[in-house]
Amino acid sequence: MLTAAAVVVGLSTVPGVAAHAAPRTPQPDADCSLNLVDALTRLPDDETTLVCVDQGGGSYRWVTYDSPYPMSDRWFSYGPELRLRGQGLRNPEMMSGRWTGYPQDPDGRCGAEQIEVLRAGEVGPAQTVTGRPGEPTEITVSPTMYSIELTGHCLWQQAG
Length: 160
Fold this sequence. Notes:
This is Secreted protein. Residues 1-21 form the signal peptide. By secondary structure, the chain is an all-beta fold. The protein has strands at residues 40-42, 49-56, 59-64, 74-77, 82-85, 97-103, 111-119, 122-123, 127-130, 137-141, 145-151, 154-158. The chain has one domain. The strands form 3 sheets. Strands 5, 7, 8, 9 and 11 form a 5-stranded antiparallel beta sheet that branches. It starts with 39 loop residues before the first strand and ends with a strand.
């Protein structure tokens, strides 16, 4: 079941909130920021996965993630929806549990649309949550999640 709760905190204390303008669209070998280190994202081709890595000396770059089965407890959505598989399928990319989407600009909104497996060969209706502008959005990802679409310029982190 997808649930949401607004979390009220000052933007300066929210992990993942950049103090500058919204992040640029990720590209291989392009700059990323410290708050996105170890986060994965996917390009619009829906095939290329990138990870933000610390290059040392205050330099952070998006590089191609070389696993055929990407999975992370940190995902970055940046504009086009980020579609991920859940534990209702083989090779999940996003595990069940509590997740928080942190907007990467002061007026940004994080959103999620989750579809769960009901029984073999049958999925349920989409459950949608959209956060308030500039505030983190909490969701609960089901252990039977088939797929999820994450939206907004947001860093999604699994709790715990």
